[in-house]
Amino acid sequence: MHSTPCSESCSGRDVVVFLTQPLQVAGAGLSCYITGPPFERYHFLGAVDNDVPSAVFRVRWPKEEGAPTAARLGLSLEPMEQVAVQKASLPGTELVDFGKQVAKDLWNYLASFEVCLASKNLGMFCRLL
C-alpha cells in the first residue's frame, strides 16, 4: 500500500480520487483508505477502477476515534472480488437515508389531510382518506 500524508485533513470531509490513466492489471481496482494518528488502522473509503475512474468519498471517522488532527491517505491495488466485499461493508450514505426520511414524512403529512367533497343533497361533507 502506498500512503500520502494530508496536511489539511481537519477541514476536509471528502476525498476525491481519479485515475489519470487506465489500470494495466485486468480485474483489479484501486482501493482507497484513510487513517489518522498514530497511523496504524486504515479505514476503507471506496475504490476506483477502469469502469469508474473517479469518485468522491465521504470521510467517516469512527466515533471512538474522533476527528484527527492529521490524516494519511492509502491506495492499494486489489482484486475486484475483494473490492466488492469491502464496498458491501460500507454504511449507507447519509444523503440517501435523509432523502428516504423526508419522502416518508412528506407522504405522512399529505395523507393526514381530509378531502372535502361536494354533494347536491347534503351540501359539503368531508371524509378521511
Could you explain the architecture of this structure?
- The protein is an alpha+beta fold.
- It has two helices and eight strands.
- The protein has a four-stranded antiparallel beta sheet with strand order 1-6-3-4. A two-stranded antiparallel sheet has the order 2-5.
- β7 and β8 form a beta hairpin.
Question: Which key phrases capture this entry?
Answer:
single chain, 129 residues, alpha+beta, four-stranded antiparallel beta sheet, two-stranded antiparallel ribbon
User: Span from first to last CA?
Assistant: 59 Å
**Helical residue percent band:** 10-25%
Report the mean per-residue pLDDT as an integer.
77
Shape from CA axes?
extended
Summarize this entry quickly.
With 129 residues, the chain is an alpha+beta fold. The chain is 21% helix and 39% strand.
Helix and strand topology:
Blueprint: E1 2-6, E2 14-18, E3 28-35, E4 43-48, E5 54-58, E6 71-79, H1 80-88, H2 94-111, E7 114-119, E8 123-128
Antiparallel strand pairs: 1-6, 2-5, 3-4, 3-6, 7-8
